[in-house]
Design brief:
The chain has 302 residues and is α+β, with helices and mostly antiparallel strands. The chain contains 10 helices and 4 strands; from the N terminus they run ααβαβαβαβααααα. α2 packs antiparallel against α6, α2 packs across α8 and α2 packs antiparallel against α10. The longest helix is centred in the middle third of the chain and has 43 residues. Part of the ABC transporter FtsEX involved in asymmetric cellular division facilitating the initiation of sporulation. Its main location: membrane. Belongs to the ABC-4 integral membrane protein family. FtsX subfamily. This is Cell division protein FtsX.
Length: 302
C-alpha cells in the first residue's frame, strides 16, 4: 500500500469520527464509563491492600528467653535471630526494661508492681520482632522456637489468619471485578461499534464492489476505533485523577480515628498514575480496534 493511500485512509478514519459524531459520542461515553469503573476497582483494591499491609506490619512477636540462659548463648542468639527470614524490626528487651514498660501499661494500678525490681522481677528477657508477611507466620514461629536459648514465642495467630484472609479476599475480589468489567466494556463497546458499522454497511458494500481491498476498507474503521479508544482512555484517566484527588482532599479535612489511619496509608495517585494511564490506553485501543475489526469483517463478505 502506497504512502499516499495510507495518508488518505488515516484522514478518512479521523474524518469518520466527526461525520458519525453521534455514534462516536455514544461509543466514547460507554467506554469511558467502563474504564472509570475499572479504574475505581483497581484503586480500591490497591488501597485496601495498602491499609491491610500497614496493619500487617504492626503485628509483633514476643520471643521469651530462658531464665538460665548464659551470656555466650545470649550473644549467639542475638546473631541467629537476625538471620531468621521474614523478620523486620528486632528489639532486645531486657527484663529490667520490660518491667518498667509493663508498669506503665497498668496505669493507676502501677503501684502493684512495686518491689518487683532486681531479683524479684518475674519477667524474662525478650525480643520484640515484627513480621513482614503474616501468611508465613507459622514457619517464622517454628524457626524462632528452634533457636537455642528461646523458651517460647507469643504470636497473634488468629489475627494473622484474619488479616491474611482479608488480604487474599480483596486480591481475588479485585481481579474478578476487573476481569468482569473488562469483559463488559469489550462487549458493550463492540456492540456500539457494531451499530456504527451496520449504519454504514452500504458504503462498505459499494467500496467492495468497485474493487477496494479488504485492508483498504477495514483500515479507516480500525483508525476510527483506535481514536475513540484513545479519547475514552484520556477522559477516563482525567476523571479518575480528579475524583481521586478530590476524595483524598475531602478525607484530609475530616479524617479522624480509623479513617485517619486509613488516609495515611492511601496510595498517592502519582505512584499508580503511569501504570493506570498505560492500562487505560491499552484497554481503550484494544476495545476500539477489536470492535471495528470484528464487525467490519462481516460486511466484507459480499
Amino acid at each position: 500500500m502506497k504512502g499516499s493511500s495510507i495518508g488518505y485512509l488515516l484522514k478518512e478514519g479521523a474524518k469518520n469520527v466527526w461525520v458519525n459524531r453521534m455514534m462516536s459520542v455514544a461509543s466514547i461515553g460507554v467506554l469511558t464509563a467502563c474504564l472509570l469503573l475499572i479504574g475505581g476497582a483497581v484503586l480500591f483494591s490497591i488501597n485496601v491492600n495498602s491499609i491491610v499491609g500497614y496493619v500487617e506490619s504492626q503485628n509483633e512477636l514476643k520471643v521469651y528467653l530462658k531464665s538460665d540462659i548464659t551470656d555466650d548463648v545470649r550473644s549467639s542468639l542475638d546473631a541467629n535471630i537476625r538471620k531468621v527470614a521474614n523478620l523486620g524490626d528486632i528489639e532486645y528487651i531486657p527484663k529490667e526494661k520490660g518491667i518498667i514498660t509493663f508498669s506503665k501499661t497498668m496505669g493507676e494500678y502501677s503501684d502493684l508492681m512495686a518491689g518487683l525490681e532486681g531479683d524479684q522481677n518475674p519477667l524474662p528477657d525478650a525480643y520484640d520482632v515484627k513480621v513482614k508477611d503474616l501468611s508465613a507466620l507459622n514457619a517464622t514461629v517454628q524457626a524462632l522456637q528452634s533457636l537455642e536459648g528461646v523458651d517460647s514465642v507469643a504470636a497473634p495467630v488468629e489475627v494473622a489468619k484474619s488479616i491474611t484472609g482479608i488480604k487474599n479476599a480483596v486480591t481475588v475480589f479485585g481481579i474478578i471485578v476487573v476481569a468482569i468489567l473488562v469483559l463488559v466494556s469489550l462487549i458493550i463497546t463492540a456492540n456500539t461499534i457494531k451499530i456504527t458499522v451496520y449504519n454504514r454497511r452500504k458504503e462498505i458494500n459499494i467500496m467492495k464492489f468497485v474493487g477496494a481491498t479488504d485492508s483498504f476498507i477495514r483500515l479507516p474503521f480500525i483508525i476510527e476505533g483506535t481514536i475513540l479508544g484513545l479519547l475514552s482512555a484520556l477522559l477516563a484517566f482525567l476523571a479518575v485523577w480528579v475524583g481521586y484527588d478530590y476524595l483524598l482532599s475531602h478525607l484530609t479535612q475530616g479524617a479522624a480515628g480509623w479513617l485517619s489511619l486509613a488516609y495515611k496509608n492511601f496510595v498517592p495517585f502519582d505512584q499508580v498514575a503511569m501504570k493506570l494511564f498505560i492500562g487505560f490506553i491499552g484497554a481503550g485501543v484494544v476495545s476500539g480496534m477489536f470492535g471495528s475489526m470484528l464487525f467490519v469483517r462481516k460486511h466484507l463478505r459480499v
